[in-house]
Amino acid sequence: MIQRHLKRKNFETQLQKAFPQYGGKHRSNYEGLKKMKRLIQTFLILVSLVGCSSQFNEGMDALKQKDYKVAFDKWKPLAEQGHDDAQYKIGKLYREGLGVELDYVEAYKWYYIVAKKEYGGGNRYMKKIRRDINSAQVSRAEKMAWQWMKEHE
Question: Dihedral of CA 116/122/128/132: which sign?
């Protein structure tokens, strides 16, 4: 409650500096600006989701046409942004060596990330990959995944 009050006070102070004519005393102006801020944030989220969906679908089309490099190029930026489906698909491309060099450690990393989000299939493929790599490689993949999650989430 105190943090919320301090954030609000900080926001009011910033408003006073930006719009001295309001003086921070007009609550209705503050509430209106607050609603506008929420509207803009919602709009930006929706716009980014539509863009992600389109790019992901383009990757799916490329996968269906067996153009794995294009699929990888479409999904990799989405995976780096935290898109669950793209992360899962990037893991698959690395696991099967489609459009990229076969890399079980990198595949394990992406499956580990989606498994930590409790997104389907990650754990199952991690178990399969563990049969093909040693414990040092598993540790390295998990360390890479934790580093990625620390930087992106």
Answer: negative
d(CA 143, CA 133): 15
How far is 59 from 61, CA to CA, in rounded Å?
5
* Count of alpha carbons within 13 angstroms of residue 104, beta-carbon side: 15
DSSP notation for 35-47:
HHHHHHHHHHHHH
Instruction: Give the separation between CA 39 and CA 69, rounded to whole angstroms.
Output: 38
Q: What is the mean pLDDT of each run of 10 residues along the chain (153 residues)?
A: 53 64 57 66 49 82 95 95 94 96 97 90 92 96 96 82
The helix/strand/coil state of 8 is helix
CA–CA separation, 99 vs 147, rounded Å?
25
Give the closest residue to 81 by CA, choosing from 112, 98, 107, 56.
Answer: 56
CB 109 within 8 A of CB 90: no
Among the listed residues 110, 136, 104, the one whose alpha carbon sits nearest the alpha carbon of residue 122: 110
Report residue 82 as tokens. 């935290």
